[in-house]
Amino acid sequence: MAMSDWNIVTRSMRTRSFSSIVTILSVAIAVGLVTLLISMRDAGENSFKRGTGNVQMLISKESGPLPSVLNSMFYASAPGNPITWAQYLELQRSYPFAWTVPTQLGDSYQDAPVMSTDESFFSDFQPAQGTSWTLQAGEHFDEPFEVVLGSDAAARLGLSLADSIAFQHGAPGTQGGHVHDEFMFNVVGILEPTGTAHDRAIFTSLESSWILHAHDRREAIFGHGITTGIDDLVDDDMKITAVYASLGERRGALVQVLSALLRDPEWTVANPSDSVGGLFEIVSNIDQVLLAMAIAVMLSSGVSILLALYNSMEQRRKQIAVLRVLGASRRRVFSMVLTESAIIGLIGGAIGIGLALLGGVIVSKILVQRVGIVIEPSLPIDGYLMIVLVSVALSCVAGVLPAFVAYRTSVVRALRPAM
Amino acid sequence: MQHPESISVTAPALQIDALAHRYAGSQQPALQIERLQVDRGEQIVMTGSSGSGKSTLLNLVAGLMNPSEGTVRIDGTDLHALHGHARDRFRGRTIGMVFQTHHLLTGFSALENVMAALMFSDIPRGSHRSRAQTLLETLGIPTPNQRVERLSIGQQQRVAIARALACKPALVLADEPTASLDPDNASVALDLLQDACRASSAALLCVTHDRRFVDRFDRHEHLTSPIEQLQGALEGV
Questions:
Q1: Predicted ipTM?
Q2: Which pLDDT score is estimated for B24?
Q3: DSSP state of A199
Q4: Which helix (H) or strand (E) is A389 found in, with range?
Q5: The overall pTM is greater than 0.80
Q6: What are A's interface residues with B at a Cβ cutoff of 8 A?
Q7: Which of A33, A53, A220, A270 is the most buried (most CB within 10 A)?
């Protein structure tokens, strides 16, 4: 094969491999950071909004709407201030809801939260708008002490159908919580992934959860060795922590019910979608600072390309002069240096995208484990291509000055024998 | 503008007329040559003391500098009437250069150094490798794929000669080609350079301050600086 400008450029980069690799890595880190931030920002908001499903109202006795949404829909921590079953029934009767789902949180198995609810959770509540619950194995719980596992919980805990588990009192991560090992729960179903926080939860019936806590109450009165069943439940045992509710398509009624509930100091009512939007408005300032920092890192990587190429010009003056003697025009050596900076931008950009994807997987795992939110940072393919294109363009801009130095190289001076 | 192809059959390889060059800020010319002609295939050596303008002459003939006055025709083409890209291309196709310190492209093999010269020629790309291999073989380079910085000084000189002749130039310019060599190796290097130029019918203009080898050339010219010329004229008076 004949020699080409490409051979000259790539060989020149290989000759200065350390400098080339360091420059490419600095571009890659900058591109990776920017890409990760952009993809996280979109994926985060989408994931949160997706996770609120078809719930129009989240009704609880929490201190505010945002903690209520974060605790009862995203499993951030165990909600406080319970709602009695009687209050729930009264709420149901008072307003023209299309459906309501009672939920109770407060127990866990290892790092998975336990969501106690009834069958309406799987029939009325859609985990993401327009989707329904499907089982990858088994069936929904029907009897007390049966559990259905979210897909992520099943995978991470290594549980399968017919396994038995005992719940611990308290939210995941609670130290020294009482383990209710007198009541073993059987795994009867495993759900398909929904891409929401519910994937890492364990679902059981409200009655099961109430029996656990009634048992504690009764042990305090009657001592150890007693058995507790559904018939032993009293009103005080039957508590929930939040109500998922919807009025269906009746927008007018929704506004009326919302304003009525908002006026009632007994209840905390949240529109989950608005609360998530509000949350992202709060974090958007931090987000913008991070994005500005990432752009600053990207610009500084552009400067590092400029410096690396500019400094190399001193060593390459002779090479450029020789090429000029051999017949290369000024424009051609200019384009060779620009090609080199474009290659740095291209390779750095591509590695950066790889780093961002890898970083996304790691961040996603950490978020699921620590916050329980399923965020899968990703951009459309056009987005990645655009980022690589910007990286190449920025590198080319950074390469203009060194390329101009190459363009202006005096052949006579560069080839003059050293005195 | 004359078309080089149309007159190259009869035109001399190099023709210089009323050439003078002054560096910026100096009234005194650094070089002054009334007339110099080198025919096709002719080999001339030009000697001169330091400051006589030998390097200036080579830079002007290679088109790397523009003269203050006069013309330089290579193969019939007025070199300085060409500008920018056209002159660079013309130089690449018509002039071969051999330097005292070789100025090979480090990091590249001997073969790649010769092929680098062919990159800028009109010779079909498909034949670049075989042409470079043949030239290196003829000049006795046994390891053409070895990087040039790993070759001996003598081998580097051969690669430089092969590179200068790669594009079948009309004129080869040699700048002190023996300066960095001991007498035995200098003689061998000159033999190689002269034989290679003869084999490809290229004219050779060799500038040196070394007078030991002047008899080997078809013609010997002595370059005197304008000051020396003035001193000579005054002594005559």
A1: 0.88
A2: 85
A3: G
A4: helix A381-408
A5: no
A6: 1-5, 7-8, 11-12, 14-15, 318-319, 321-331, 411-412, 415-417
A7: A270
